[in-house]
Each structure stands twice: as structure tokens, then as C-alpha cells.
Amino acid sequence: MSDFLSFKVPNPTTQQIAQSFRWLGWLGFWLQVLLGFIPILVVVTTILFSPNQGQLGLSFGMSLAIVCLLVLCFSIYWCYRYTRVGNKLKAPDLRPAKANVIRDLKVGLIANLGTIGISVLIALLRVGELTFKMLRLPQGATVVTPAPVGTTIAPGALITASNMITIQATINAIAAGLVGAIVALLLLYQVGRHHSSSN
């Protein structure tokens, strides 16, 4: 058992690290683009087609969503930037210093952790709001479709398809941030194992 725990992995060469930067950078970029599509679509649609367009200012939740998507767009760009760093690592005359590469990876990690943190906060607020609406319904009530006009259920007490799309968008943003964080951590691990003497 102790032999298994002391298994040594050879230190990666600069060329292997460059290949990892390119491969993981493109993987992270496309996964984040796919996962980030729904949140971006939901926020843009909400801003453009909201019934409260004439009002000045944004709600706290919408402001958080916009900040989250800006950070997500930055982290998508940062994953693309990993592919450019990989190309520079491949060419000895363009190779950046190890400290600069580690700094770039830490920036990407912090951006993705920010996306995750803001998305979790939005999810907590949204699910809490929907839970409060459900708790206001009479005990034992089952609501499948909107009731006709004149019932005792208050408007806005039902969970609608747009509520579920919002929750799905939040989960997608969390997943996109998680993908970016995993890519940054894998690259940090590989760069941390590299020794200057190996090529």
C-alpha cells in the first residue's frame, strides 16, 4: 500500500506543459461557452424584454447576474488566453517567466471562483424567494396550472417556466465557473511540478 501512495510521476517538460495549456485552454473555453450560453441569453432577454424597461435602475438580483456574467465572460476569455500562453511556452524565445504563468493561472482561478460564488449567491436568493412563495400557498394545495381570474391565490405565487429557466441558468453559470476553476487548478499543478532544468 505504501508503494502505491509514494508513486512518482515524472516532471513534465516545457513542451508537455505547452500542450496542456493549449488542450485544456480550448476544452475550458468551449465548455464555458456552451454552459454560459443559457445564462447570457436569460440575462440579455430579461434586460431587453422586461416589463419594467421604463424604470430606471436594476434590481439587486439582476445587478448580481450582470456582474456574474461579466466575470464569466472574462473567464471564458482567460481560458482562450491559456491557449496563447501555450503557444508562447512552445517557442523558447517567447517563453514567459514561470512566475508570470503562475500569476495568470491564479487570475483565472480567482475569476472562476468569483463566478461560482456570485452564482451560488444568486441561486440562494432565487430559490429562497421561490420557497417563500410556495410557503404562502394554503397547506396541502396542489397547483399545476395557473388558476382562472378571481381565485384566492395571489398573483406571482406560482412557480413559472421563467423561474425554472432562471434556476437552470444559475446552475449553468456555476458549472461554467467550476470548469474554469478545474482547468486553472490542473494547469497550476502541472506548472508547479515543472523544474527549470527540464525541457
Secondary structure topology:
Blueprint lengths: L1 H4 L8 H36 L10 H31 L7 H39 L24 H33 L6
Helix pairs in contact: 2-3, 2-5, 3-4, 3-5, 4-5
Write up what this structure looks like.
- About 3% of the residues have low confidence.
- The chain has 199 residues and is mainly α.
- It has one domain.
- The chain has 5 helices and no strands.
- 72% of the residues lie in helices and 0% in strands.
Summarize the structure.
This protein is mainly alpha-helical and 199 residues long. The chain is 72% helix and 0% strand.
Please give the domain count.
1
Number of helices: 5
The percentage of residues in β strands lies in under 5%
Fraction of residues in H or I helices: over 70%
Distance between the termini: 33 Å
Structural class: mainly alpha
Uncertain stretches: 150-155
> Globular, elongated, flat, extended or rod-shaped: what is the shape?
elongated
H-E string: HHHHH
Rg (CA only) = 23 Å
**How many beta-strand runs?**
0
- The overall average pLDDT, rounded, is 82
Question: Largest sheet, if any?
Answer: none
